Every structure is written in C-alpha cells, then in structure tokens.
C-alpha cells in the first residue's frame, strides 16, 4: 500500500444544460453535456497516524474553501471509509486552480479525485463505473469528474455516457470574485418559469453533431444553458460579460452550470515556428545549413515532416542567412509555410518575437530548430498531448544525454515540474552532474508566450534576446512550466558541423534499416547499406552490402539488390536482380537482371525478363520483354522490341554533334557483335545485322544488313614487310611444316 497518492483532476464546463420541471422530491431532472477543460486541481491523499480525516489547502488565504467535514473531498473520503471499513486516518491536501463556487465543478472534482486516490491508496481495484456510482452519492457532477473527456449526463446529471468529440477547443473563462449558490440559481429558474409549460430535458442534436465534426463555429452556436437566465437575474453583470465576449469575437458564450463563471469559445489556432536563420559558419559551406541533406531530405524538411502530424494551423519559418535559397526550397517542400526574415540575428527570443508579431489568437505555439532532423512526429505529438493534459503554460522537451557537456541542464522540483534551466556556464558542479538537458524544443500557451516575449531583455554578453529567458519569466509569474522527456536522446541532436551531419545521417540510416528489417526486408549488412526515407521497399527484398537506395526508388517484392549497387529514383519490379551497377531514373521490370558493372541512365525502361550484362550503358531507351544486352554496349535514344539480342560491343551512334536521333529495333532482331547503328535508323522485325557492320540505312524486316568492306588476304605480306619479327618466324615455321 502506498503512503500517498497524488491525483490531478480537471474542471468542467457545461456545453448544454437542459433543466426539466421541478419534481415532487424538490429536484430537477437534467440533460447536460460536460466537457473537461485544462484547469486542474491537484488532490493529495495520504495516510496519517491519528485515525481522522483532515483537509488542508496549499493556498495561503482562501475564505471560500471549507477545510472541515463540509468539504466535498472529505465527504468522499468518509464515504470510502464507511463503504470499505477503512480505519486509517487520511489527510487531503488541495492545490486548487479550479474556481470555487464558479460553476466548474471545483468541489465535485476534488471529491472525484479523492475517490480515485482512495481506490489507489488502498488497492481496492474498483472499476470506473463503481467509482462513478460512489460519486453519485455525493453530488450530480462528481461522476463526470471521474470519467472526464466529453460526456452526456442525465437524471440528475449523474448518469454518464461518453460523447464523441473531435478537435481541440479553446475556452476563455471569465471568473467572478463572488460565487452563486446552486440551490439559489435553481430556485430563481423555477420563479422565472412560473406559469410556463416546461418540457422534459433533452440534448441538442446540433451540439452533438458539432462535437462529432470538430466544428468550433457550429459548437459556438449550439451552446445553451437553461440556468443562464436565472444566473443573470441574480447577477446582472453576467449579461454584460456575455455581450462583451461576443463583441470581441467569441464563437459563443455560456454561463457554466449554475455560474457565475462564463465560458467563451474562441478561435483555436496551433502554430509551429521553425528557427532557420542561423549562419551555420561551422559547416564551412556556401549553402544554408538547413539545406544540407541526410536520407534524401534537407535538414529543415525532416523537421517539417516531424511537425506535420501535430497538425498546426500555420507553419512559420524564420529565415536569415541565404534567405533566398531557403525560401525557394520551402516553396517546394512546404508551399503553405509563411517565412519571416530576421535581418539582424537578435537571438532565439527575438526570432520568435518577430515570428509572432501581430499574433492574437489562442492555442499553442510549437517551437523547433530547423537543424534537428532526428526529431520524430511521434515524440512531438506526445509532447503536445502532455502539454495539453497538464494545463501548463510552457512545456520543454528534454532528454537524458550520456554526455550532457555544453547543454543547458533541466532541474526539476520535487513534484516533477520544471524548476529551472541552467546553462552549463552558470551551473554548479552538482548541477552539472544532471544528465537531463534542454533540447530547445518548446510548446507554449500562445497568450502567455506573447506576453513574456515583450519582457525579454538583452542584458547579457551576446546582447541578444534568448528564448530560454521566457521560461524564467513564466516561472516568476507563477505559471506552470513542465518538462517532457524524449524517449531517445538522439532525437534532439542538432547539426552544427559536417561531423555532426555525418553522425545524424548514420543514426537516421540505422532507423530506416531497422524499420525495413522489421517490415520484412533483408539487409545483409546495414552498416554499409544506405537508404533514403523516400524509398519504398516491399517485403522479401534482399539488399546486399555496399548498396545505396536513393530518392524515390521503389523496389518490388523478392527483388535482390547488390552488392555494391546504387539506385536513384528507380523502379524495380518483383524478383528482379540488380548487382554491381549504377542506375538513375530508370524502370527495371519484373524478373529482369542488370549487372555486373552496368550503368542505366535517365529514361531507361527495361521490360520483364530483360537482361543487361557487364559494361553496358543505356540512356533514354525502352527495351522489350526478354531482350538481352549481354555486354560491352552503349544504347541511347532507342526503342527496342521483344526477344531481341544485342551483340557485344554494339554502339548506337545517336549524336551527330548537334542533335540526338532515334533508333528503332524491332522484335526478334539479332544485332551482330561490334555493330555501329548510326541514327536515325530502323531495324525491322526479325532482321539481322552482320558482325562489325556500320549500319547507316534502315534494314527491312527479315533482311540481313551488312555494312562493311569485303575482306581480302595479301599472301606473304608478313614475311616481306615484317621479316625477322616473331610473327614472321612463326609464319615461316608454319610454312615449313607443310
């Protein structure tokens, strides 16, 4: 049994509250739609030695929070003690952010958390449905605080059914300095309804459809609360608050529950900012650092791919050095990205500040460096999920680094929240022993970030505005800042020089090879095999050592590639074999064979069962099924039919010094060895060319083309012209033996 349990529980708002007529028992039947929001209370449930139940608050002064047996969390603990014969003393410590008496189920949330805490503390093994039933004995809202999410509540609101809700919604909560009594609001509702026929409560189809579609605009129009008129009657200022919120562009507004908190649905925009303005001097390159490539993509393209699964509404990229080529590259890989030019390199904080100039939306801002190609989309999605679930103002992506030298250290509070980020030069010897480091990847609540950026200072050695200072500003204002640890420290490695570029390429390639092997591809030697992320490789393919699969290459099942083969933007059919060869922008048909030492250039198309042998170069040529080009040939700008044989040392002479010309060779043709085919020329179906011919005219189907001088033998020439040579001696010996 644990000594203590900490439960974090969200507040709620009512998207709809339909209230039926007053019943004989003095209650009302209701139909409501709850939605949990990211305002959290922390409820700590722990054992004590006096056998009593105590309630404490971490707030210094809170006159509205009862700390005696009237506290709903205390009632929940007493209920659990009675139900399960627990005699141990319990201390409940409340750290509250949910408003008290604000219509957001603050007390109910504490009760629900206390039930969950007691179940965990005493290993009771209760199911969620069991805990909801216990919660219903305490109050109508308590069962929902146990289930969370978005749900329908009927009866007294305590019969909970989950509701499909897509998308993310941004709520602005207008709080009140004084509360409203729920019984008083219901009484006022009954007074206002006197003499009216009140229909049974029911849930709005329009609201459920809006939630299912994730449509904020439709949801804003569908918000409704039958208690709103009564709450406004008791507290007229609520009408003014609702009007002001709608005037300022809220999609909808509603008094939450019995009030007095007012919830406004606002436009939600998640943004991502990539910082890509750096000089990259250590790369010693004329190219922008973020344009260097690994695994078939630029560094910044890798980061953009990692950001995409988080689905930001807008991607903003801060550019600086080599801005023209970076902007041109972005227009190709991410045409919707917005670029912001940082003319003066004023630090990371300055870069984010200019990127958010004029920004006034709610939502989140994800910030990444453009030179961290190993970041994964899965990690960024988990980072965003963690940020939203904790209700933090800022979340820092951290990692445990085997050698943290040079990195800022992440120091945590006892609760696990981030305490501070200490740069290495400022860290004590004890702090330097911490291996958890700051990655430079952040998610911020947009409004908090914009406010903090305005407070940045250049009071440092570099005279720059640092984004890390935003964390300190938020902490000093009492904002919640947390750190989320990446599962693999290599994800956060940045690129500053060619050595780090090589290391990142090695790590990325190992990931690619491992993923392919897990999916059914055999890679004989992953250490010597290099494969781009953009390649597609089917199951049961075998890749032999020393091979490189580049670009948008596609390889069909059971093909064998290598050893020592390079494929760039090629398509290889099933069961084909390509070895000891270099191929670019070519199609290799199923069961075809290429190699060794073949060079397929752009535009080559080999049909099924074609064989291309050693020292053959082919360019912009289509070759029909079953045709063979066994060795020592050049074929360019040609169309060759099926089942044809191209003899050794054949050359298609396609270039006249000005233009390139086409050659057509039909089906079942036999081209004799050492033939020169001078384009433009056509060799008809079934035709032959004699070995050693220079073919300058078309050869009709079935004909033999001969383009060579008749041979003549000059007898005795060697003895006369090379007398005394070994050749002459050999010839004389032969003559003497006759």
Distance between the termini: 113 Å
Query: What is the overall number of helices?
Result: 19
Alpha-carbon Rg, integer:
38 Å
Low-confidence stretches: none
Instruction: Determine the fraction of residues in helical runs and give it as a percent range.
Output: 25-40%
Overall average residue pLDDT: 91
Number of E-state strands: 47
Question: What sort of overall outline do the alpha carbons produce when their principal axes are compared?
Answer: elongated
Q: What summary fits the major beta sheet?
A: 19 strands, parallel
The portion of residues forming beta strands comes to: 25-35%
Assign the structural class, choosing from mainly alpha, mainly beta, alpha/beta, alpha+beta, or little secondary structure.
alpha/beta
Structural commentary:
With 738 residues, the chain is an alpha/beta fold. The strands form eight sheets. It has a 19-stranded parallel sheet that branches.
Question: In short, what is this structure?
Answer:
By secondary structure, the protein is of the alpha/beta class. Helix content is about 25%, strand content about 30%.
């Amino acid at each position: 049994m644990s000594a203590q349990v900490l439960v974090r529980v969200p507040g709620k708002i009512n998207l709809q509250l339909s209230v039926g007529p007053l019943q004989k028992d003095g209650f009302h039947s209701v139909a409501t739609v709850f939605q949990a929001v990211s305002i959290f209370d922390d409820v700590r449930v722990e054992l004590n030695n006096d056998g009593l139940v105590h309630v404490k608050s971490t707030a210094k002064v809170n006159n509205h929070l009862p700390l005696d047996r009237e506290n709903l969390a205390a009632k929940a603990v007493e209920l659990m003690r009675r139900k399960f014969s627990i005699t141990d003393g319990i201390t409940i410590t409340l750290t509250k952010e949910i408003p008290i008496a604000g219509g957001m189920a603050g007390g109910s949330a504490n009760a629900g958390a206390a039930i969950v805490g007691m179940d965990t503390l005493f290993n009771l093994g209760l199911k969620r449905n069991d805990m909801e039933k216990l919660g219903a004995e305490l109050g109508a809202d308590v069962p929902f605080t146990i289930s969370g999410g978005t749900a329908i509540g009927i009866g007294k609101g305590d019969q909970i059914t989950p509701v499909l809700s897509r998308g993310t919604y941004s709520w602005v909560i207008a709080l009140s300095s004084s509360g409203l009594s729920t019984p008083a609001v219901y009484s006022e509702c009954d007074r206002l309804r006197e003499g009216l026929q009140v229909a049974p409560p029911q849930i709005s189809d329009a609201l459920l459809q809006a939630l299912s579609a994730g449509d904020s605009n439709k949801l804003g129009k569908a918000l409704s609360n039958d208690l709103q008129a009564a709450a406004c009657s008791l507290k007229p200022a609520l009408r003014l608050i609702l009007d002001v919120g709608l005037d300022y562009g809220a999609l909808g507004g509603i008094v939450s529950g019995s009030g007095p908190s007012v919830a406004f649905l606002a436009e939600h925009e998640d943004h991502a900012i990539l910082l890509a303005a750096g000089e990259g001097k250590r790369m010693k390159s004329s190219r922008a650092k973020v344009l260097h490539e690994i695994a078939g993509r630029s560094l910044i393209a890798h980061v953009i791919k990692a950001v995409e699964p988080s689905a930001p509404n807008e991607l903003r990229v801060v550019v600086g050095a080599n801005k023209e080529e970076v902007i041109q590259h972005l227009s190709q890989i991410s045409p919707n990205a917005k670029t912001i030019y940082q003319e003066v390199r004023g630090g990371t904080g300055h870069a984010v500040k200019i990127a958010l100039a004029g920004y006034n939306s709610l939502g989140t801002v994800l910030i990444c460096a453009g030179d961290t190609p190993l970041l994964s989309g899965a990690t960024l999605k988990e980072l965003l999920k963690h940020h939203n679930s904790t209700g933090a103002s800022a979340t820092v992506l951290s990692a445990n680094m085997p050698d943290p030298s040079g990195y800022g250290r992440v120091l945590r509070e006892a609760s696990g929240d981030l305490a501070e980020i200490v740069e290495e030069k400022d860290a004590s010897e004890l702090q330097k022993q911490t291996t958890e480091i700051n990655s430079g990847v952040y998610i911020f609540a947009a409004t908090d970030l914009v406010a903090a950026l305005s407070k940045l200072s250049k009071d440092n050695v570099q005279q720059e505005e640092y984004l890390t200072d935003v964390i300190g500003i938020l902490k000093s204002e009492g904002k919640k800042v947390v750190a989320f640890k990446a599962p693999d420290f290599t994800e956060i490695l940045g690129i500053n020089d060619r050595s780090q570029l090589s290391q990142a390429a090695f790590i990325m390639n190992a990931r690619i090879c491992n993923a392919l092997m897990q999916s059914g591809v055999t890679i004989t030697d992953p250490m010597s095999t290099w494969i781009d992320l953009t390649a597609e490789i089917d199951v049961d393919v075998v890749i032999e050592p020393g091979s490189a699969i580049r670009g948008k290459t596609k390889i069909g099942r059971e093909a064998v590639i290598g050893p020592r083969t390079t494929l760039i933007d090629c398509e290889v059919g099933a069961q084909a074999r390509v070895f000891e060869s270099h191929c670019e922008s070519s199609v290799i048909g199923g069961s075809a064979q290429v190699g060794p030492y073949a060079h397929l250039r752009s535009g080559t198309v080999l049909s099924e069962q074609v064989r291309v042998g050693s020292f053959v170069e082919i360019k912009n040529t289509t070759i029909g099924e079953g045709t063979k080009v066994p060795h020592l040939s050049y074929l360019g700008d040609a169309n060759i039919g099926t089942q044809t044989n191209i003899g050794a040392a054949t050359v298609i002479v396609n270039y006249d010094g000005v233009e390139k010309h086409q050659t057509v060779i039909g089906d079942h043709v036999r081209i004799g060895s050492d033939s020169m085919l001078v384009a433009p020329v056509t060799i008809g179906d079934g035709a032959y060319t004699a070995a050693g011919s220079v073919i300058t005219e078309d050869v009709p189907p079935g004909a033999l083309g001969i383009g060579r001088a008749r041979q003549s033998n000059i007898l005795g020439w060697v003895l006369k012209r090379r007398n005394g040579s070994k050749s002459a001696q050999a010839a004389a010996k032969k003559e003497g033996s006759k």
